[in-house]
Specification:
By secondary structure, this protein is an alpha+beta fold. It has 2 domains: 40-130, 2-Layer Sandwich (Phosphorylase Kinase, domain 1), CATH 3.30.200; 137-366, Transferase(Phosphotransferase) domain 1 (Transferase(Phosphotransferase), domain 1), CATH 1.10.510.10. The protein has helices at residues 2-11, 14-37, 48-54, 94-103, 137-140, 154-174, 229-232, 242-257, 274-283, 296-312, 323-331, 352-366, and strands spanning 44-46, 61-65, 68-74, 80-86, 114-120, 123-129, 178-180, 189-191, 197-199, 206-208. The protein has a 6-stranded mixed sheet. The chain has a two-stranded antiparallel sheet with strand order 7-10. Strands 8-9 form a two-stranded antiparallel sheet.
């Protein structure tokens, strides 16, 4: 014991030790305060012993992420679940609180159902309904030749895009409070036995009032490649629900292309960034070069998804349609859609006010007359 104390004293100053225990205590208190203030949550609380039993002591691992691991489990009634066990070192409990607070407010066919949680000392876990087909990612990203991903039919892909759009529309406008997800990507879209999509992983979500159009944020949040430009470059515009629209557009491009948007393995630099490459094809009315297009309906579905995605990733957030308009565009006719201006990843050269006016006018002249951007 003396030796251990000496080693601790040698490696940590007294201030560091005090800070460590204060931080750990603060993390625990943050979550405890949240649970006490939300005692009305209609979600069952489980002990860590329950978690070990339902996962058969974490025998069947479904996946791993920065947050921790996901394990297959079974409740006492035989219902299959996915148990997300959070790492002890994850922030100050914000991710745990975000997930419980966000999903407990939702009830939608395209939002994953949270069935319970565990908060016991440093142990935190979230219990979700089990999705037999896993994440969307494995059906569109195929790197290893030995693990050939199953390419879904275009009708299924189109329906998945519509389902995700409906889920986001619900989060943005259907709840009593607006929920911004901030991490829309294929990995966070789960598929049930019928390949119906469900939005999951609300660890980075922000909850705001429905009247709150612009939110304040400290630092960027999200996954590289899907983050809207205004999230890390504020002179482009304010951060709002349009950040999710951008992420959605980048994700649908990957659904269409069957590859990551930025593919460093491609030799020709003109094809590295898929959205720019496909825009050029549309502009010049060239063959889209997509896999599995079997008939005219497949071609129309693919083209609609591409055009909608191009609208969603417009640099200026005012130029992106809300998810309600996205749903209408995907469900409508291809003939009613027009190709938007080419999206650029750099910020506008003019001031935000001038740039917004310029781009919004351009968008209004191209979009259908019944479309709304707010």
């Amino acid at each position: 014991m003396v030796l251990i104390c000496c080693l601790i004293k040698r490696n940590f100053s007294s201030n560091q030790i005090i800070y460590f225990w204060k931080k750990k205590s603060l993390n625990h208190k943050t979550v405890q305060d949240f649970l006490r203030n939300h005692g009305h949550l209609a979600i069952k609380r489980y002990s860590y012993s329950d978690i070990k039993k339902m996962t058969n002591f974490f025998r069947d691992k479904l996946g791993e992420g920065g947050f921790g691991g996901v394990y297959k489990g079974k409740l006492k009634d035989g219902c299959l679940v996915a148990v997300k066990v959070l790492k002890e070192s994850r922030g100050n409990g914000e991710e745990f609180i975000n997930e419980v607070a966000s999903i407990s407010r939702t009830s939608h066919v395209n939002i994953v159902c949270l069935m319970g949680f565990c908060f016991e000392g440093s142990k935190r876990a979230l219990i979700y309904e089990f999705m037999p087909n896993g994440s969307l990612e494995k059906f569109i990203h195929n790197k290893s030749p030995s693990k050939v991903a199953r390419r879904l039919e275009w009708e299924t892909l189109h329906n998945i895009a519509i389902g995700i759009a409906r889920g986001l529309e619900y989060l943005h406008r259907g709840c009593s409070t607006r929920i911004l997800h901030f991490d829309i990507k294929p990995h966070n879209i789960l598929l049930d036995e019928n390949f119906s999509p469900k939005i999951s992983d609300f660890g980075l979500a922000k909850i705001c009032t429905r009247e709150e159009s612009i939110i304040s944020m400290l630092g960027a949040r999200g996954t590289a490649g899907y983050i809207a430009p205004e999230v890390f470059c504020r002179n482009i515009g304010g951060v709002s629900h349009k950040a999710d629209v951008y992420s959605y557009g980048m994700m649908v491009f990957e659904i269409v292309g069957g590859r990551r948007n930025i593919d460093v393995e491609i030799d020709r630099t003109s094809e590295i960034f898929f959205p720019h490459w496909i825009y050029k094809r549309l502009e010049q009315n060239e063959d889209l070069g997509l896999q599995g297009l079997m008939n005219e309906d497949d071609y129309k579905s693919a083209r609609k998804m591409i055009i909608v995605s191009l609208w969603c990733i417009q640099t200026n957030p005012l130029c992106r349609p809300p998810m309600s308009t996205v749903v209408n565009m995907l469900e409508g006719s291809l003939e009613s859609l027009q190709v938007p201006p080419k999206p650029y990843l750099s910020s506008p050269s003019r001031s935000p006010e001038d740039s917004s006016t310029m781009v919004s006018t351009q968008c209004d002249s191209i979009m259908p007359s019944n479309a709304s951007f707010f």
